[in-house]
Amino acid sequence: DAKTTQPPSMDCAEGRAANLPCNHSTISGNEYVYWYRQIHSQGPQYIIHGLKNNETNEMASLIITEDRKSSTLILPHATLRDTAVYYCIVRGTQGGSEKLVFGKGTKLTVNP
Amino acid sequence: DGGITQSPKYLFRKEGQNVTLSCEQNLNHDAMYWYRQDPGQGLRLIYYSQIVNDFQKGDIAEGYSVSREKKESFPLTVTSAQKNPTAFYLCASSRRVDYGYTFGSGTRLTVV
Questions:
Q1: Which of A32, A46, A105 sits opposite B42 (nearest CB)?
Q2: A44-90 tens-digit pLDDT
Q3: Distance, CA of B71 to CA of B49 (rounded, Å)
Q4: Contacts of A67 (CB under 8 A, 6+ apart)
Q5: CB atoms B104 and A43 under 8 Å
Q6: For residue A84, which residues of chain B lie inside 8 Å, CB to CB?
Q7: What is the distance between the alpha carbons of residues A26 and B58, in angstroms, rounded to a whole number?
Q8: What is the 8-class DSSP label of residue B39?
Q9: Could you report the average pLDDT of every consecutive run of 10 residues in chain B (112 residues)?
Q10: Could you write out the DSSP letters of every residue in A42-98?
């Protein structure tokens, strides 16, 4: 089972910031938070990941709460092409059989 | 450019026939994965392989088989034992110490 909980859908106006929440209350100390997105009928695309500190790259920012039980993915200026399903996933740093477990994600619709 | 290639993009199969989906990567990644996605659903893990000549069952392995004879290749066979094979199939790879996944563009299998 997925270790994360996300709202099933969200809407955002084009040009505004999109803030996508994720709850991962059972996350353990060595587990990273990963975000992927999937545009219809394509393979998921990596966005960003983090452990404790907030992270930023050219696509998005990731804000992780101090207790690490939740996080928020921020798309600072959403465009129509950001319409996709966004998956929040936790994964450990140990090797071996660690694998990504996907939930149903959040369907983000960016409106003109 | 490095990447992961799935072929074919669309595949049609008659009931009772086995079919093999191809997945090739030139990223020098150790681990490879097969996921299945049904409409409106998240991804479910079929099989994964952490190293050549070794693989493990995922959550929905029944009716599927894989091989990992080369690091670059991880083909998936959908056998006639799979009762509902029509789905979108995604292959992914990752390095063992870098836990981001790279996904292929997927194969859409339809049983006719």
A1: A105
A2: 999 999 999 899 999 999 999 999 999 999 999 999 999 999 999 88
A3: 10
A4: none
A5: yes
A6: none
A7: 22
A8: T
A9: 88 92 95 92 90 92 96 96 93 77 94 88
A10: S--EEEEEESSS-EE-SS-EEEE-TTSSEEEEEETT--GGG-EEEEEEEEES--TT-
